[in-house]
């Protein structure tokens, strides 16, 4: 089970504030926590490499190699190539999986194996250097085939020999990558209370989710009927006072799952003009996969109006422009002590307290020595 980010943050603050040594802001904590998690994550592979060269015990729960493997196996993923390129010699290069096509970022942190999934049995592609690849493809005795393919890995892509004859729509999925991804950045999310205090927000963070409590009223747009922004409103049966909870019809929107609250003052049978003053539209459920410019359409029946109107999302309505939403540590709870000590070590540097640095470093070194005895 992963480490809870709120548990770590409150523990670190309790230790720092015990003797009024200083304070660590959420932004500072998030940066330190991400760095510490990545350091511990990279250390898994160093320790794994060391343990496989040691005698292995068969005693249950005592195998260090098995324990380390359990730590990083949650980051083991398999995905098809993201695109293909046909080279001048007729071979096809398969680009490794891409996490964000807009900025071309890849989730591949450590490449494991590559497989020819377009062939029955999905044989593993033997990766080799360019010299060995050239010699083997030219050799009449060592010619690779679809059951024993070979490839060269360079520039985040694998060039495979021999080629598969597949429809263009299927060729991209002919090669699959097995890899270790990097842990996601840690995030302690918060909302701000009435006294200006930070309140932990356990909502799962997504940059394309909507931010709770942000308003949409400045972007009111009239519908296709009626004149101007004038609406004849009546009290809806589901409303509490003048507030209407509504799951909006989505028009020209990429996401789903959001809900909004509509507060209109005054309410009555006469025509009123909806403005940012008398109409407050607030996000009450975050949804996911939204973009700036997406539109919500409010149906007339939902607020007792005589025509529809729509609101448009702005950058201020997305979660990534606020402090809301949290991302937990992805390494296991067995690493919680190391996480706290290493964050304290860096925190001591930030608040310029050498005693914290020395104490945290000493305890961390002692734990590391004990695990390798």
- Any idea what the shape is? flat
H/E topology pattern: HHHEEEEEHEEHEEEEEEEEEEEHEHH
Nearest-angstrom radius of gyration?
28 Å
Give a count of the beta strands, DSSP E runs of length 2 or more: 19
- List the domain count as a whole number: 3
Strand order of the largest sheet: 2-3-7-6-5
Largest sheet geometry: 5 strands, mixed
Q: Percent of residues in helical segments?
A: 25-40%
- Helix count from the secondary structure assignment: 8
Strand residue percentage = 15-25%
> Which consecutive residue ranges, at least 5 long each, have pLDDT under 50?
224-244
What distance separates the N and C termini? 26 Å
Mean pLDDT: 79
Polypeptide structure, described:
There is one protein chain. α1 packs across α7, α2 packs across α3 and α7 runs antiparallel to α8. Strands 2-3-7-6-5 form a 5-stranded mixed β-sheet, with helices on one face. A 4-stranded antiparallel β-sheet has the order 11-19-18-14. The protein is α+β, with helices and mostly antiparallel strands. About 6% of the residues have low confidence. It folds into 3 domains: 110 residues, no CATH class; 105 residues, no CATH class; 116 residues, no CATH class. It contains 8 helices and 19 strands.
Blueprint of the fold:
Elements: H1 5-17, H2 26-51, H3 64-72, E1 76-80, E2 83-86, E3 92-95, E4 108-116, E5 126-127, H4 130-138, E6 150-154, E7 157-161, H5 168-171, E8 175-181, E9 190-192, E10 198-200, E11 220-222, E12 230-232, E13 243-246, E14 249-251, E15 256-264, E16 271-273, E17 279-288, E18 295-298, H6 300-303, E19 309-312, H7 336-350, H8 354-371
Parallel strand pairs: 5-6
Antiparallel strand pairs: 1-8, 2-3, 3-7, 4-8, 6-7, 9-10, 11-19, 12-16, 13-15, 14-18, 15-17, 18-19
């Amino acid at each position: 089970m992963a480490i809870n980010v709120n548990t770590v943050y409150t523990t670190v603050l309790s230790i720092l504030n015990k003797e009024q040594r200083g304070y660590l802001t959420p932004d500072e904590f998030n940066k330190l926590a991400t760095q510490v998690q990545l350091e511990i994550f990279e250390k898994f592979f160093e320790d794994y490499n060391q343990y496989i060269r040691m005698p292995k015990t068969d005693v249950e729960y005592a195998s260090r190699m098995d324990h380390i493997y359990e730590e990083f196996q949650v980051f083991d993923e398999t995905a098809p190539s993201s695109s293909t390129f046909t080279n001048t010699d007729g071979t096809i290069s398969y680009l490794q999986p891409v996490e964000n096509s807009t900025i071309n970022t890849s989730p591949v942190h450590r490449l494991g194996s590559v497989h020819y999934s377009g062939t029955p049995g999905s044989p593993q592609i033997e990766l080799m250097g360019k010299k060995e690849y050239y010699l083997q493809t030219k050799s009449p005795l060592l010619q690779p085939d679809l059951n024993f393919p070979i490839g060269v890995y360079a520039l985040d892509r694998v060039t495979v020999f021999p080629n598969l004859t597949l429809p263009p729509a299927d060729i991209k999925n002919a090669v699959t990558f097995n890899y270790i991804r990097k842990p996601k950045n840690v995030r302690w999310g918060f909302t701000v209370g009435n006294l200006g205090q930070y309140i932990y927000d356990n909502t799962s963070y997504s940059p394309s989710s909507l931010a709770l409590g942000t308003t949409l009223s400045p972007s009111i747009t009239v519908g296709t009927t009626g004149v101007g922004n004038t609406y004849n409103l009546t009290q809806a049966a589901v409303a509490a006072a003048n507030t209407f909870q509504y799951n909006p019809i989505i028009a020209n929107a990429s996401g789903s799952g959001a809900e909004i609250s509509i507060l209109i003052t005054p309410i009555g049978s006469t025509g009123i003009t909806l403005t940012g003053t008398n109409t407050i539209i607030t996000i009450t459920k975050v949804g996911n996969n939204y973009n700036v410019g997406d539109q919500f359409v409010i149906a007339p029946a939902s607020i007792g109006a005589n025509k529809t109107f729509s609101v448009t999302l702005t950058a201020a309505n997305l979660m990534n422009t606020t402090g809301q939403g949290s991302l937990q540590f992805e390494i296991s709870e067995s690493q919680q002590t190391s996480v706290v000590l290493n964050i304290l070590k860096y925190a001591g540097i930030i608040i310029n307290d050498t005693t914290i640095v020395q104490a945290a470093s000493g305890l961390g070194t002692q734990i590391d020595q004990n695990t390798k005895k």
